[in-house]
Amino acid sequence: AATGKGVNARKPHIEGVKDIIAVASGKGGVGKSTTAVNLAVALANTCQLKVGLLDADVYGPSIPTMMKLQGKPEVNEDLKMIPMENYGVKCMSVGFLVGKDSPLVWRGPMVMSALEKLTRGVAWGTLDILVVDMPPGTGDAQLSMSQRLKLSGALIVSTPQDIALIDARKGANMFCKVEVPILGLVENMSCFKCPHCGEKSYIFGCGGAQRTADEMNMEFLGEIPLEVGVRVSSDEGTPIVASAPDCGVSEAYKHLASNV
Ligand code: ADP
Q1: ipTM reported for the complex, 2 dp
Q2: Would you give the DSSP letter of residue 80?
Q3: Averaged over 203-231, what is the pLDDT?
Q4: 230 lines ligand 1 (CB under 6 A)
Q5: What distance in angstroms lies between residue 156's CA and the mean position of ligand 1's atoms?
Q6: Within a 10 A sphere around the Cβ of 193, how many other Cβ atoms?
Q7: Is the pLDDT of residue 114 over 70?
Q8: pLDDT tier at 113, thresholds 50, 70, 90
Q9: Is the minimum distance from the CB of 252 to ligand 1 under 6 angstroms?
């Protein structure tokens, strides 16, 4: 999957890492981290790739909780941090380095030096793909990160309502500016299927992401439904792709992984 269409020949600057892809969103709270986690687990377990997951969401790291990992990373003889592993994915997060409840009041240069430590200061080993959970938005930090990481591609996550899609467009335009290929747009929380009567409700609207993708010449990578199980498994640190690999929503994540 990772080396398939969409990913260009840019060479990432981390030794042993073949491709780096960003999971990004114009807005917070649309399910970017949840998508990054389940995508990484699906790439490792279904596509049988060697996968790393970097939590670059320095202002709100959620990978430690979502991947049920805690503590401080060990350091090897080359003074590189050893990533922590769960569900077959090697993880690194700024959340491992700071207290759970401490706010990060860092300015741009500190964010960049943290990113440097979290990428090149880590003993990733050989990876087919490093999935990066980006901070939401299109500010300075996101822009410099996109350039510094030498991304092979970016995947944009949005919910279906206009207000989120407007920001998703901004995100896509940011990556275009720094010449990072857009792998496509994923619609998260696309519809809700009532567990009692089975009726589908399009709580945040219907078809908006597909339209936006068409208008912007981006690939539409699919829909992830709004499901209680996704939220519960994220909170418990057992990504749904790992804990219920055969359910409908896990199939949607696996489909996404095979399209990246
Ligand atoms: P972001 O990274 O964009 O800020 P998160 O991935 O942290 O967003 O998700 C925000 C909240 O929405 C979390 O509580 C998460 O569990 C929940 N969530 C994300 N995607 C879904 C989904 N498809 N169905 C149900 N809940 C979801």
Answers
A1: 0.99
A2: P
A3: 91
A4: yes
A5: 14
A6: 15
A7: yes
A8: confident
A9: no
Q: Give residue 215 CA to ligand 1 midpoint distance, Å.
A: 26
Indicate if ligand 1 lies below 6 Å from the C-beta of 189: yes
- Residue count (the chain): 260
State if residue 31 touches ligand 1 by the CB under 6 angstroms criterion: yes
DSSP-based three-state secondary structure for 182: strand
Look up residue 100 and give its two tokens: 């759970």
Three-state SS at 77: coil
Shortest-distance atom of ligand 1 to CA 231: 16
Pocket lining: 224 vs ligand 1, CB cutoff 6 Å: yes
Could you tell me how far CA 54 lies from the centroid of its own chain? 8
DSSP 103-162: -----HHHHHHHHHHHHTTB---SEEEEEEEPPSSSSHHHHHHHHHTT-SEEEEEE-SSH
Residue pair 221/256 in contact (Cβ under 8 Å)? The answer is yes
Question: What DSSP letter does each residue of 39-57 carry, written as one string?
Answer: HHHHHHHTS---EEEEE--
**34 touches 188 (CB < 8 A):** yes
Retrieve residue 214's tokens: 């068409």
What helix, strand, coil percent values describe the chain, rounded to 5? 35, 20, 45
pLDDT in tens, 150-173: 899 999 999 998 888 888 999 999
Across 140-153, average pLDDT: 88
Place of tokens 């409700």: 201
